Request: fold
Amino acid sequence: LVLVVDFGAQYAQLIARRVREARVYSEIVPHSMPVAEMMAMGPKAIILSGGPSSVYAEGAPGLDPAIFEAGTAVFGMCYGFQLMAQGLGGTVAETGAREYGRTRVHVGHAGTLLGGVPTEHNVWMSHGDSVTAAPDGFEVLASTAGTPVAAFENVDRGLAGVQWHPEVLHTEHGQKVLEHFLWDIAGCRQTWTIGNIAEEQIERIRAQIGTDGRAICGLSGGVDSAVAAAIVQKAIGDRLTCVYVDHGLMRKGETEQIERDFVAATGTKLVVVDAEKQFLEALAGVSDPETKRKIIGREFIRTFEAAEVDIIKSSPAGSTVKFLVQGTLYPDVVESGGGTGTSNIKSHHNVGGLPDDLEFELVEPLRTLFKDEVRLVGEQLGLPPELVWRHPFPGPGLGIRIIGEVTRERLDILREADAIARAELTAAGLDRDIWQFPVVLLADVRSVGVQGDGRTYGHPVVLRPVTSEDAMTADWARVPYDVLERISTRITNEVREINRVTVDITSKPPGTIEWE
Ligand code: XMP
Reply:
């Protein structure tokens, strides 16, 4: 285990991922955690992340120097490097000099940390103060124009640090430096592999649920719930029942992917609730986006809970369904303040015949995993690649990609156009470059066109391909013209009701990714 101490910058998650890429398990802890508590977790090494630009900044978080005496290897990056220098008796000068962005670093003495790294290379910096003298017993390894001490190590004590950010993509040889620390200085073993991750989770879930517990899992059609279910299925077999609510707002082929391919790949017991009619009736006559979302959310909960009740009623006499599986990921856990325990949630039932409140214990097999690890585990468990690599898709589905009232006919039109856009994107090999590619039907708009021999009066669709890291911000994707051309030609030829294809070139902000 490697602990990444989060000093409040956005880098801790990235560091934790890079450590795992070096096949060593990592977890993030807040800087407010006492050193004794960190040590109680038994870490093989500790990494101090970046943070504010100066250890002298007002309110800058400090560090208990006891951390350096606890017998565990410590690696400081950026702010963490300065804290280390300060805590060990070196000098951090308020030079006022700043280095931001790409910076040239000169390696004077490679030592263990910078072994095999070129003497001159580019790294990513963001700091104000500089370390001007290394602590006693430390070897200075590198410098930059503005920083006399940009890296140091004391291999005997297992302590090392760099002023730059080895975890970011723009830093050359960053992963190599991190691996030198983990493998050669801290002596971490490379045991965090995808095969082991899956095995470990299966064991953990088996222990949590016990030999006679039963669980329910809602499948959304996305990768997280599918992988979570696949892991639990491996752990407890058909004591798991999955529920998939078909609200009729999915894209072409997606329901079949779950109903047929997911079940074939995992052998999961699946209940499919065909609720299309119920959803469309509830949505009839509604075109306001927020009202649509509310209706879809409400109907979804009702339907899912009714399915839960049926499963509970039909499970073998004497057994109780006590567990609810959820696809919570590690970033959600970190962002909501961490915590390692399991929590209970209450499910409020509107359906008669059972207690008002049913209490479930949550089962969260992906709680320690990042999205890219979830995908690799999904592949390892043999899930269909279209499912594993699926783009994010909103819960309300195509319901918020039809501008205007949602009807069966409009959904069918949009499904055809969307399937063409997806197929062409895949054929062009661009799936993994594009974050999401909504196709939006302007159902209340018509424009004049000419198709075949005659005048038409059809609907436009909007293509909305975007690039993004986290959906908080996004840019419109520069999809090659020839790919756009094929999509446009095929949609207007193959979907009779559509006679115009447009591309949305708005970034987020100001536009959101979805149109509603
Ligand atoms: P916007 O449109 O706000 O979307 O830029 C950001 C991300 O969230 C997805 N999204 C949703 N996901 N339920 C979901 O599960 C929703 O109601 C919902 N609305 C938007 C959207 O697809 C994008 O990835």
About this structure: The two ends are 43 Å apart (CA to CA). DSSP finds 14 helices and 24 strands in the chain. The longest strand covers residues 454-463.
